[in-house]
Amino acid sequence: MKYERSFNFSAGPAMMPEKVLEEIRDEMMNYHGSGMCVMEMSHRSKVFIDIYEQAVADLKKLMNIPDNYKVLFIQGGGTLQFSMVAMNLMKNGKAVYVETGSWAKKAIAEAKKVGEVIIGATSKDDNFSYIPDCSDMDIPEDADYVYICENETINGTTFHKLPNTKGHILVSDQSSMFLSRPCNVADYGLIWGGVQKNVGPAGMAVVIIREDLIREDIDPNMPIYMMYKTHAAADSMYNTPNCWAIYCCGKVFKYLLDLGGLEKMAEMNEHKAKILYDFLDSSKMFKTVVRPEDRSVMNVTFRTESDELDKAVVKASEAAGFDNLKGHKSVGGLRASIYNAMPEEGVVALVDFLKKFEAEHK
Ligand SMILES: *Cc1c(COP(=O)(O)O)cnc(C)c1O
Questions:
Q1: Which pLDDT score, from 0 to 100, does residue 362 have?
Q2: What ligand 1 atom has the least distance to the C-alpha of 203?
Q3: DSSP-derived 3-state class of residue 171
């Protein structure tokens, strides 16, 4: 291998495209003749504003974002958005949440601090191993929005079809699937994603919000950083933004455009996931837990018959040069996160390893 890099199956922070890392390396000491690293630049300088504007323009192109949506870069990672969404969008103090797993539950817990949460559908009865039917939920007329976690990173499920919101605003946490497949932005009022899962370095979220949802009539006592209008009015530069993350994300947006856009990316991702799921379906030792039609293309969860054997798999995988195959501590088992930047050869190598492990432990 060129750099002796491992196949890193981490759920996040996760792999970035090698080409992007190389570009960042080449620009490290002197970005485009500025005599500075991007880390050293004023966020008010022309050279940085250009980086920011290009990143926004490229994301808009990549996702085909309509003109009445605003792209915001906000610090606080994914977690701050659990609070911001509820604090800004709960006008009537009521929202419907779909409970699909660990990350939906965290969002629900924060929203409950702000207003009334109605669980429109849940898959709690079977350990969040499937996406509940959301075609005919009970949605009060005055509910402010319907919230989903579109890909549950820990449980390994994904919405392959959006819920029927009956005309209400759809809010989606896309953190662990952001830019993994095409998405019709107009179907949503707000899309957000922590970027360290599928795009760039940790510590920032991208928020795509329909302009009419950026409220001016918000409680003036709310901390100013928590208001979307603060970030929207200042083009994400109310305070010093996470310049480094914006720069790295911009590189990934450009990389995806050059690759052929999100259709192409989705095709590659589905192909990678199929290689792994096909093996798991044929294996006697490894079992998937998620209902097949709700399987995530990004986070593949599986397990053996025992915790001891799961541990042995992890140990052997590390010796073989694979990292982070252990399932999340809250659910156990095994998990391979195969985001955009995981090359197909990494998935093929993982399958070869698992096959060999199975043959040796019959
Ligand atoms: C990781 C993750 C988050 C939280 O992101 P942080 O940046 O760690 O706060 C939220 N939602 C989903 C779906 C995630 O995978």
A1: 82
A2: 7
A3: strand
Beta strand 190-194 with 151-152: parallel, antiparallel or unpaired? Answer: unpaired
* Burial grade of 350 (CB within 10 A; 0-12, 13-18, 19 or more): buried
Q: What is the DSSP letter of 295?
A: B
Domains along the sequence of the chain with CATH? 19-259 (3.40.640.10), 262-360 (3.90.1150.10)
| Helix residue spans in 283-343 (DSSP H) | 307-319
Record the pTM. 0.97
User: Whole-angstrom Cα distance, residue 109 to residue 117?
Assistant: 9
Phi and psi at residue 28, to the nearest 5°: -60, -45
CA of 35 to the centre of ligand 1 (A): 35
Atom 3 (ligand 1) nearest CA:
78
Cα of 79 from ligand 1 centre, angstroms? 6
By three-state DSSP, how is residue 163 classified?
coil
In this structure, the residues whose C-beta lies within 6 A of any atom of ligand 1 are 12, 77-79, 103, 149, 153, 173, 175-176, 194, 196-197
129 phi and psi angles, rounded to 5 deg: -95, 5
Kind plus residue range of the DSSP H or E element containing 268: helix 261-282
Residues of the chain with pLDDT under 50: none
Pocket residue to mutate for ligand 1, from 105, 174, 197, most atoms within 8 A of Cβ: 197
Task: State the catalytic residues.
Answer: 103, 173, 197
- Which is nearest to 200 in space by CA: 152, 235, 250? 250
DSSP for residue 198? T
- How far apart are the C-alpha atoms of 35 and 182, rounded to whole Å? 38
What's the gap in Å between 187 CA and the centre of ligand 1?
Answer: 22
Helix (H) / strand (E) containing 119: strand 116-122
**Model pLDDT, residue 181:** 98
Atom 13 of ligand 1, residue of closest alpha carbon: 175
Rounded CA-CA distance 249/243 in Å is 10
Assign 139 to helix, strand or coil.
coil
pLDDT in tens, 144-174: 999 999 999 999 999 999 999 999 999 999 9
Mutate to test the pocket of ligand 1, among 148, 153, 192 (most ligand atoms within 8 A of CB): 153
Mutational pocket test of ligand 1: of 82, 103, 242, the residue with most ligand atoms within 8 Å of the beta carbon: 103
